[in-house]
Amino acid sequence: MELAKLTFDERGLIPVVVQQHDTLEVLMVAWMDAEALDRTIESGRAWYWSRSRQVYWMKGETSGHIQEVKEIRYDCDADTLLLFVDQVGVACHTGERTCFFRSLYPVADRDVPATTHDGDNIPLS
Amino acid sequence: MELAKLTFDERGLIPVVVQQHDTLEVLMVAWMDAEALDRTIESGRAWYWSRSRQVYWMKGETSGHIQEVKEIRYDCDADTLLLFVDQVGVACHTGERTCFFRSLYPVADRDVPATTHDGDNIPLS
Questions:
Q1: Is the CB of residue A69 less than 8 Å from the CB of residue A45?
Q2: CB–CB of B106/A81 below 8 Å?
Q3: Which of A38, A68, A119, B59 minimizes the number of CB atoms within 10 Å of its CB?
Q4: Interface residue A119 vs chain B (CB under 8 A)
Q5: Preferred mutation among A37, A43, A76 to probe B, highest tally of B CBs within 10 A
Q6: How far away is chain B from the Cα of A49, in angstroms, using its nearest Cα?
C-alpha cells in the first residue's frame, strides 16, 4: 500500500475524527498508525492504536459496537483523517452515543443538539 | 478560568475538531493550548496554536474567514475538543470549504457528500 503522502507524527501516529455517515454526528477521535490504517482498509472496520495500552484495538471487539467504514478522507495537510462510519450501538465506553456529550461553553443559548450531561460542565471561573 | 479537568498533552496542546454548527460538516482539525482556549472563549472567535510557526493565530485574521464559536464540547477523556462554529467563507487555505476534501478510501460507492478532488486520491497500491 502506497500511503506515502500521509504525514504521521513523530510517534508514527495520525489523529482520526470519526463521524456517523448519515447523521454527521462526530462520535470520537482516536489514533492510527500505518498498520491500523491498513487493517481498517482491509477489514472495512475501524482499527486504532491505543496510546495508553500500546496495542492495536478494533473498535467494538469486546462490546460489539463496531464501526463499519464507509469512507476515509484526509485533510489538506494530509496529517489528519476523517472516517465516515456506520456506528453499531454506541461509540463511547460510557454508554453515550458520542464521546462528545459534555459542553464546556456556552451552557445555554445553543442551536445545536443538546448535550445530555449539563451537570458535568466544567466551571468557567 | 478553571479548566483543570481538561487534559493537555506533553506539549500543552489539545486537538480541536471544528464542525459547522448547522450542516455538521467537519471543517478542519487544529490545536489549542490553554491560552488559545482562553482567547477563544473570551472573544467568541476561534484561536489556535500553530505548531509549525509557534504562534497564536485567530482563524481568519488575514483572510477574513473567521469562525464564530457557538459551542465547545469535550470528550469522555477530556483530551479532545469539539467546536461548533459558524464558518465565514471557507475553512481551508486552499479555498475549499472544508480541509477534508480528498478521499482515501473508497473512491466510489459512497453515500456521503462527494469530494471535489477525486483526482487527488492517494493510490492504494
A1: yes
A2: no
A3: A119
A4: no
A5: A76
A6: 16
Residue count of chain A, please give it. Answer: 125
Q: What is the pLDDT of residues A38-54, one digit of tens each?
A: 999 999 999 999 999 99
Answer for the pair B78, B7: CB distance below 8 angstroms, yes or no.
yes
pLDDT of residue A3: 67
User: Do the Cβ atoms of A72 and B103 come within 8 Å?
Assistant: yes
Count the residues in chain B.
125
**Is residue B22 less than 8 Å (CB to CB) from chain A?**
yes
* Chain B residue with minimum CA distance to A1: B125
* Helix, strand and coil in chain B, % to nearest 5: 10, 35, 55
Angle of CA points A56, A61, A62, to nearest 5°? 120
If you search the block for the grid coordinates 487493517, which residue do you land on?
A: A39
A-chain residues within 8 Å CB-CB of B70?
110-112
In degrees, rounded to 5, the angle at the alpha carbon of residue B27 between the alpha carbons of residues B114 and B53 is: 130
Counting beta carbons within 10 angstroms of the beta carbon of residue B33, is it exposed (0 to 12), middle (13 to 18) or buried (19 or more)? middle
- Quote the ipTM score: 0.85
CA distances from B35 to A14, B7, B14 (A): 24, 14, 11
Entry pTM: 0.86
**10 Å Cβ neighbour count for B21?**
19
C-alpha cell at B13: 496542546
